[in-house]
Amino acid sequence: MEQRPIDRLAPILLLIAVYGIVWIDLFLPQPQTELFSTVWYGFSAAKSALRIVFILLAMRLWLGFEEFNFGISGIFPTAKDVANGILVAASAVLVALLFALLALFSGATNPLLSPLAGGGEKPLTLLAMILSSLGIGYSEELFFRFFAVRTLEKACFSASAAILASALIFGVSHGSQGIFGMIGAAMLALIFSFFRTKGKGLHALALGHALYDLVILLAVT
Q: Max alpha carbon distance in the chain (Å)?
């Protein structure tokens, strides 16, 4: 049976609604907290936890978890997931290094990372940084690699078009990092999606994403 226009539009509206709720803070004034401080990382981890709960709730109520094919054997990651996560992170770091060289030669900078300075991290700050990276990894992979892609497919996007559209949304969502940051984020989204198409599950992608973020933060601090 041919899908009606309303059946194609409904998933798009749902995607917009969930995106707006989950990342509403991107469009609101930010709290007066020092960037990349212990409090900032802790606040980031708390926001990510709320995002994860809401995204999972949206998935469960709309199509059910089975429809999203997380590709995991349980709630907790296995040794194989960790190994795959390291592979994903290494690939993302390699792409980021190549992109950073291009940005260096062009004179571009990342306005979000520029406030960071060296000097090492205190244990509590390092712990908060790890929790923040894990929270971001799981929340962003849940939404952009699973919820968004599957929702776009329900709106009659092909698998490739859904992945590309999700990557573009992911890139635009990093607008605070400037044009190069947005392009870089979109490229990384395609890397994560590549591994998703190769059968890597949620844990592998989220751990890889988190490890990538952590490596970048440690490198610039």
A: 63
